[in-house]
Amino acid sequence: MLISALLSATLVLYVASALFMLQQVFKPRSSLTAISLVTAVMALVCHGGLIYLRLAGDEFDHLNVSSSLSIVAWLIALLSLFRVQQSNSLLLKPVIYLFAALSALLLVLTPADLGAYIGFGHGLVIHIVLSLVAYGVLALATLYAIQASYINYLLKTKKTSGLFKQLPPLMNIERYFFRLLSAGTLLLILAIASGFAFLDDMF
User: What's this model's pTM, rounded to 2 decimal places?
Assistant: First the structure.
Protein backbone atom coordinates (compact mmCIF):
# COMPACT_ATOMS: atom_id res chain seq x y z
CA MET A 1 0.00 0.00 0.00
CA LEU A 2 2.80 2.42 0.92
CA ILE A 3 4.71 1.62 -2.26
CA SER A 4 1.59 2.23 -4.38
CA ALA A 5 0.99 5.56 -2.63
CA LEU A 6 4.61 6.63 -3.12
CA LEU A 7 4.52 5.61 -6.77
CA SER A 8 1.34 7.60 -7.40
CA ALA A 9 2.76 10.65 -5.63
CA THR A 10 6.05 10.35 -7.54
CA LEU A 11 4.35 10.14 -10.93
CA VAL A 12 1.95 13.02 -10.23
CA LEU A 13 4.66 15.29 -8.82
CA TYR A 14 7.16 14.63 -11.61
CA VAL A 15 4.56 15.21 -14.32
CA ALA A 16 3.26 18.34 -12.58
CA SER A 17 6.78 19.74 -12.24
CA ALA A 18 7.49 19.03 -15.92
CA LEU A 19 4.27 20.80 -16.95
CA PHE A 20 5.13 23.82 -14.80
CA MET A 21 8.55 23.97 -16.47
CA LEU A 22 7.01 23.83 -19.93
CA GLN A 23 4.60 26.62 -19.02
CA GLN A 24 7.58 28.67 -17.92
CA VAL A 25 8.98 28.39 -21.45
CA PHE A 26 6.06 30.30 -22.93
CA LYS A 27 4.99 32.42 -19.95
CA PRO A 28 8.01 33.13 -17.72
CA ARG A 29 6.84 33.80 -14.17
CA SER A 30 8.74 33.57 -10.90
CA SER A 31 5.73 31.96 -9.21
CA LEU A 32 5.85 29.06 -11.67
CA THR A 33 9.55 28.60 -10.98
CA ALA A 34 8.93 28.36 -7.24
CA ILE A 35 6.03 25.93 -7.66
CA SER A 36 8.06 23.76 -10.04
CA LEU A 37 10.98 23.68 -7.59
CA VAL A 38 8.74 22.63 -4.69
CA THR A 39 7.02 19.88 -6.68
CA ALA A 40 10.39 18.64 -7.99
CA VAL A 41 11.81 18.40 -4.45
CA MET A 42 8.71 16.53 -3.27
CA ALA A 43 8.97 14.19 -6.28
CA LEU A 44 12.62 13.46 -5.48
CA VAL A 45 11.77 12.69 -1.85
CA CYS A 46 8.96 10.32 -2.88
CA HIS A 47 11.12 8.72 -5.57
CA GLY A 48 14.01 8.25 -3.15
CA GLY A 49 11.67 6.69 -0.60
CA LEU A 50 10.30 4.39 -3.28
CA ILE A 51 13.78 3.21 -4.27
CA TYR A 52 14.69 2.61 -0.63
CA LEU A 53 11.56 0.60 0.11
CA ARG A 54 11.97 -1.57 -2.99
CA LEU A 55 15.61 -2.34 -2.23
CA ALA A 56 14.99 -2.75 1.50
CA GLY A 57 12.16 -5.19 0.77
CA ASP A 58 14.80 -7.49 -0.73
CA GLU A 59 17.29 -6.60 2.03
CA PHE A 60 19.47 -4.85 -0.58
CA ASP A 61 20.55 -8.23 -1.95
CA HIS A 62 19.78 -7.74 -5.65
CA LEU A 63 20.25 -5.04 -8.28
CA ASN A 64 18.58 -5.23 -11.68
CA VAL A 65 18.24 -3.05 -14.76
CA SER A 66 15.06 -1.33 -13.51
CA SER A 67 16.46 -0.49 -10.07
CA SER A 68 19.75 0.72 -11.61
CA LEU A 69 17.85 2.85 -14.13
CA SER A 70 15.66 4.32 -11.41
CA ILE A 71 18.68 5.18 -9.23
CA VAL A 72 20.44 6.85 -12.17
CA ALA A 73 17.27 8.78 -13.11
CA TRP A 74 16.94 9.93 -9.49
CA LEU A 75 20.57 11.07 -9.48
CA ILE A 76 20.13 12.96 -12.75
CA ALA A 77 17.00 14.68 -11.43
CA LEU A 78 18.83 15.56 -8.21
CA LEU A 79 21.83 16.97 -10.08
CA SER A 80 19.57 19.02 -12.35
CA LEU A 81 17.87 20.44 -9.29
CA PHE A 82 21.13 22.11 -8.24
CA ARG A 83 20.91 24.24 -11.38
CA VAL A 84 18.46 26.66 -9.82
CA GLN A 85 18.88 29.12 -12.70
CA GLN A 86 15.84 28.42 -14.81
CA SER A 87 17.34 29.24 -18.20
CA ASN A 88 20.31 26.90 -17.84
CA SER A 89 18.14 23.80 -18.04
CA LEU A 90 14.90 25.15 -19.44
CA LEU A 91 14.42 22.40 -21.99
CA LEU A 92 16.17 19.63 -20.07
CA LYS A 93 14.28 19.45 -16.79
CA PRO A 94 10.89 18.40 -18.25
CA VAL A 95 12.62 15.57 -20.12
CA ILE A 96 14.55 14.55 -17.00
CA TYR A 97 11.46 14.57 -14.78
CA LEU A 98 9.37 12.53 -17.23
CA PHE A 99 12.22 10.03 -17.61
CA ALA A 100 12.47 9.75 -13.81
CA ALA A 101 8.71 9.14 -13.59
CA LEU A 102 8.97 6.34 -16.14
CA SER A 103 11.90 4.78 -14.28
CA ALA A 104 9.91 4.82 -11.03
CA LEU A 105 7.08 2.96 -12.73
CA LEU A 106 9.48 0.35 -14.12
CA LEU A 107 11.03 -0.04 -10.67
CA VAL A 108 7.71 -1.05 -9.12
CA LEU A 109 6.72 -3.32 -12.00
CA THR A 110 10.00 -5.30 -11.81
CA PRO A 111 10.37 -7.93 -9.03
CA ALA A 112 12.85 -6.71 -6.41
CA ASP A 113 14.62 -10.08 -6.17
CA LEU A 114 15.36 -10.18 -9.90
CA GLY A 115 18.92 -9.41 -11.02
CA ALA A 116 22.49 -9.68 -9.80
CA TYR A 117 23.15 -10.69 -6.21
CA ILE A 118 25.16 -7.98 -4.43
CA GLY A 119 24.83 -9.00 -0.81
CA PHE A 120 28.19 -10.71 -0.48
CA GLY A 121 30.63 -7.82 -0.24
CA HIS A 122 30.99 -4.11 0.42
CA GLY A 123 33.61 -3.77 -2.33
CA LEU A 124 31.11 -4.63 -5.04
CA VAL A 125 28.63 -2.13 -3.58
CA ILE A 126 31.26 0.63 -3.69
CA HIS A 127 32.03 -0.24 -7.30
CA ILE A 128 28.34 -0.22 -8.26
CA VAL A 129 27.60 3.06 -6.47
CA LEU A 130 30.55 4.83 -8.11
CA SER A 131 29.52 3.45 -11.50
CA LEU A 132 25.91 4.60 -11.10
CA VAL A 133 26.92 8.09 -9.97
CA ALA A 134 29.39 8.37 -12.87
CA TYR A 135 26.71 7.21 -15.29
CA GLY A 136 24.26 9.78 -13.92
CA VAL A 137 26.73 12.66 -14.19
CA LEU A 138 27.80 11.68 -17.72
CA ALA A 139 24.17 11.21 -18.81
CA LEU A 140 23.38 14.74 -17.61
CA ALA A 141 26.47 16.00 -19.46
CA THR A 142 25.12 14.33 -22.60
CA LEU A 143 21.82 16.19 -22.24
CA TYR A 144 23.69 19.48 -21.92
CA ALA A 145 25.74 18.60 -25.01
CA ILE A 146 22.51 18.03 -26.95
CA GLN A 147 21.17 21.39 -25.76
CA ALA A 148 24.43 23.12 -26.74
CA SER A 149 24.25 21.50 -30.17
CA TYR A 150 20.67 22.73 -30.61
CA ILE A 151 21.57 26.29 -29.61
CA ASN A 152 24.57 26.21 -31.95
CA TYR A 153 22.28 25.04 -34.77
CA LEU A 154 19.87 27.92 -34.13
CA LEU A 155 22.72 30.43 -34.13
CA LYS A 156 24.18 29.14 -37.39
CA THR A 157 20.84 28.99 -39.20
CA LYS A 158 19.65 32.25 -37.58
CA LYS A 159 16.31 30.62 -36.74
CA THR A 160 15.52 32.73 -33.71
CA SER A 161 12.12 32.60 -32.04
CA GLY A 162 10.39 33.30 -28.75
CA LEU A 163 11.79 30.06 -27.39
CA PHE A 164 15.32 31.04 -28.43
CA LYS A 165 15.14 34.13 -26.21
CA GLN A 166 14.50 31.87 -23.21
CA LEU A 167 17.58 29.72 -23.85
CA PRO A 168 20.83 30.37 -21.96
CA PRO A 169 24.02 31.66 -23.61
CA LEU A 170 25.94 28.97 -25.44
CA MET A 171 29.11 29.65 -23.43
CA ASN A 172 27.28 28.98 -20.15
CA ILE A 173 26.00 25.64 -21.41
CA GLU A 174 29.44 24.61 -22.71
CA ARG A 175 31.12 25.62 -19.46
CA TYR A 176 28.73 23.53 -17.36
CA PHE A 177 29.00 20.65 -19.85
CA PHE A 178 32.78 20.47 -19.46
CA ARG A 179 32.47 20.60 -15.68
CA LEU A 180 30.05 17.67 -15.73
CA LEU A 181 32.21 15.78 -18.22
CA SER A 182 35.31 16.23 -16.03
CA ALA A 183 33.48 15.14 -12.88
CA GLY A 184 31.89 12.16 -14.63
CA THR A 185 35.21 11.04 -16.08
CA LEU A 186 36.88 11.24 -12.66
CA LEU A 187 34.08 9.21 -11.08
CA LEU A 188 34.30 6.65 -13.87
CA ILE A 189 38.06 6.28 -13.32
CA LEU A 190 37.40 5.72 -9.60
CA ALA A 191 34.69 3.17 -10.44
CA ILE A 192 37.05 1.24 -12.73
CA ALA A 193 39.84 1.40 -10.13
CA SER A 194 37.48 0.08 -7.45
CA GLY A 195 36.57 -2.76 -9.81
CA PHE A 196 40.21 -3.79 -10.10
CA ALA A 197 40.60 -3.46 -6.32
CA PHE A 198 37.50 -5.37 -5.20
CA LEU A 199 36.57 -7.77 -8.03
CA ASP A 200 38.45 -10.96 -8.81
CA ASP A 201 36.94 -11.30 -12.30
CA MET A 202 36.93 -7.66 -13.41
CA PHE A 203 36.71 -8.49 -17.11
Answer: 0.81
